Amino acid sequence: MNKFFDEPICKDCNLEIKTIFKKLLPEQIDFLTQNKTCNIIKKGTVLYQEGNRISGIYCINKGILKIYKTGIEGKEQIIKFAKKGDVIGYRSVIISEPACTSVKVIEDAIVCFISSQELYHLLKENSEFGIEMLEIACKELGEANNYITDIAQKSVKERLAEILLHLKDEFGVNNDDIININLTREEIANLIGTATESVIRLLSEFKAAGIIELQGRKIKIKDAVKLKKMSNVF
């Protein structure tokens, strides 16, 4: 972890992307800025592991982090990706349980740490902030329920089409219309719950059909309408 850089100012983040802390009062934002700690964390670093006790929450200022669970024979099941403005670890902190997931940096990141004491202080002082955190927890629960339904009822092709659309919506595209997250074929497979070979085959099918364009790990969606029909998302 590298500490030699200008630490992000919470007020600036809040103005730019409207984080979970948007309901805090100006003096509470100042309290957050003064009491958090921030670090540059390099790609490949594990922030914390499933089963660890964590003593606070993490707010992402830059970069992308992979949130996953480890299953049989060490196989990963990716739950989601965290990006700028996202907060992770709060569930384990609030209910005082070990972390239920592991987190790994997949793109160099700046991550700010807020201790549980500081989090509780803000929750007690600002009920609107508490409601905001509750709403985010409920949203994540809904997403988890949808994921379980997809795994049970959708084909691998449908799940792959859906996740490509989701990644485009979540991370946006660059000037060449390429999705702003580069994942290995294995990571995509771990995200939709299938074998890497199946993802490689289906991506080739999508490419041959003119639905996507592949440039190594980079993916460009050329026909979002067809992809949406394939995903059965309405």
Helix coverage percent: 40-55%
CATH class of the largest domain: Mainly Beta
Gap between N and C termini: 43 Å
Main beta sheet:
6 strands, antiparallel
Q: Please, what is the CATH homologous superfamily of the largest domain?
A: Jelly Rolls
Q: DSSP helix count? A: 9
Helix and strand pattern: HHEEEEEHEHHHHHEEH
Structure explained in plain terms:
The protein is an alpha+beta fold and 234 residues long. Helix content is 45%, strand content 23%. It has nine helices and eight strands. It has helices spanning 10-17, 26-35, 90-94, 116-125, 127-153, 156-171, 185-192, 196-208, 224-231; strands at 37-41, 46-48, 56-70, 76-82, 87-88, 102-115, 212-215, 218-221. The strands form two sheets. Strands 1, 2, 3, 4, 5 and 6 form a six-stranded antiparallel beta sheet that branches. It has a two-stranded antiparallel ribbon with strand order 7-8. β7 and β8 (218-221) form a beta hairpin. The longest helix is centred in the middle third of the chain and has 27 residues, at 127-153. The chain is globular, with a radius of gyration of 19 Å. It starts with 9 loop residues before the first helix and ends with a helix. The model has no long low-confidence stretch (mean pLDDT 91).
Give a topology summary.
Layout: H1 10-17, H2 26-35, E1 37-41, E2 46-48, E3 56-70, E4 76-82, E5 87-88, H3 90-94, E6 102-115, H4 116-125, H5 127-153, H6 156-171, H7 185-192, H8 196-208, E7 212-215, E8 218-221, H9 224-231
Antiparallel strand pairs: 1-6, 2-6, 3-4, 3-5, 3-6, 7-8
Helix pairs in contact: 4-5, 6-7, 6-9, 7-8
